[in-house]
Design brief:
Radius of gyration: 21 Å
Number of helices: 3
Shape: rod-shaped
Structural class: mainly alpha
Helix content: 55-70%
Number of domains: 2
Order of helices and strands: EHHEH
Length: 72
């Protein structure tokens, strides 16, 4: 899982450097965009996150069931 701000920041940094902006200009530009936005509250997850959570919860419930019923 990655926050959207990191993805945007990395992409903007690459684009601005290719256009010839200095490191300081790039930093200030990205900071200005990200500081005033709520983009840092958005997270990007893998496509199969729902399936992964379902599998993990299934296995976890099996383990807990076995512990509760002394089948370990």
């Amino acid at each position: 899982m990655v926050d959207a701000g990191t993805i945007i920041s990395d992409h903007l940094e690459n684009v601005l450097k290719k256009q010839g902006y200095s490191e300081m200009e790039t930093y200030h530009f990205i900071e200005e965009i990200l500081v005033d936005s709520r983009i840092e509250q958005v997270f990007v997850t893998p496509k199969n996150i729902d399936e992964s959570i379902k599998n993990i919860s299934h296995y976890l419930s099996q383990v807990l069931n076995n512990i509760m019923h002394n089948k370990c």
